[in-house]
Automatic annotation (TrEMBL):
It holds the Pfam family VitK2_biosynth. Gene3D superfamilies: Periplasmic binding protein-like II. It is an enzyme of class 4 (lyase). The keyword Lyase applies. The active site is at H149. The gene is mqnD. It comes from Campylobacter gastrosuis. PANTHER family: 1,4-DIHYDROXY-6-NAPHTOATE SYNTHASE. This is 1,4-dihydroxy-6-naphtoate synthase. Pathway: Quinol/quinone metabolism; menaquinone biosynthesis. InterPro entries: Menaquinone_biosynth, MqnD.
Length: 289
């Protein structure tokens, strides 16, 4: 009986992460010597577990990566960027926000938290599971909250958008895609396993994107998605598309800009160039040529 090495993969329960991984789960994409197990966790928990080094491969907020760079390489695939859209700061209609307003964010190390803290340094922040933020605003537990994932498409008509995180990003960085989330891979894995893991996950995103209607139907049929068919189609067009398959130069430049801003505002201890932290896939070409 052939022995397979298991790679533990953690991702969020939101539609784009599930969509980008399911080609592996359904057996459409695989490896000759690796097997993959998956766990779904909210983004704050994913970031916390990445800090502990819990999973081999894990979805993370891009804002977290400089804090785990010594233990995890960054994958080029399964990435989500905003381009004219992104998380939304919402409040109750008619409410005025003071400089020190109380706000609910989805996690300390999320990209939206980094940009929010730069834009609103006097705000009083509480961190909540992203599914609890809308209700926290509606019940006046907080003055405002930043909605992420599918929540940006469907929230109470008692709420209005105070500011788009995209607009904060553009004010700070100019006209570049907004880096939101990606995948990181444990550095202690043998390099051949790391390269193979990235290959499989990249192919999974490619296959999912190429068969979006069929895979979306399968996810809806299995009740794996929290939104209806039309909202799922809209959401995937935003965050799980051709640009999710592999980062291009524009995406890499955006990510470097994010880390430049984080260093400038003292969220990170040192500057970094993300090109130095990818898996060296050229190793296989050299080794097996």
């Amino acid at each position: 009986m052939k022995h397979f090495k298991e790679i533990s993969v953690a991702h969020s329960p939101d539609a784009d992460d599930i969509f980008m991984y399911m080609a592996v789960k359904f057996g459409w994409v695989g490896s000759e010597w690796l097997r993959f197990s998956n766990t779904a966790l909210d983004i704050q928990t994913l970031n916390d577990e990445a800090l502990k080094g819990t999973y081999d491969a894990t979805a993370i907020s891009f804002g977290l990566y400089p804090l785990i760079k010594d233990d995890y390489a960054l994958l080029r695939t399964a990435v989500s960027f905003g381009n004219g859209y992104g998380p939304k700061l919402v409040k109750k209609k008619g409410k005025s926000l003071k400089k020190n307003f109380k706000v609910a964010l989805s996690g300390k190390h999320t990209t939206n938290a980094l940009l929010f803290r730069i834009a609103y340094p006097e705000a009083r922040i509480v961190y909540k599971n992203f599914l609890e933020i809308e209700n926290a605003v509606l019940t006046d537990e907080v003055d405002a909250g930043v909605l992420i994932h599918e929540s940006i498409l469907d929230f109470s008509d008692q709420l209005c958008v105070e500011r788009e995180i995209w607009d904060i990003w553009c004010d700070l960085a100019g006209d570049m895609p907004l880096p939101l989330g990606g995948m990181a891979l444990r550095r202690s894995l043998p390099l051949t396993d790391a390269i193979e893991t990235e290959r499989v996950l990249t192919e999974a995103v490619r296959v999912a994107t190429a068969h979006k209607p069929f895979l979306s139907y399968m996810l809806m049929e299995r009740n794996l998605i929290r939104v209806d068919k039309e909202k799922l189609k809209t959401y995937l067009s935003l965050y799980a598309n051709e640009s999710s398959v592999t980062m291009n130069e524009t995406a890499i430049n955006s990510l470097n800009k994010l880390y430049e801003l984080g260093y400038k505002h003292k969220f990170y201890p040192e500057p970094l160039d993300i090109n130095d932290f990818f898996i060296p896939t050229e190793y296989n070409k050299i080794r097996f040529s």
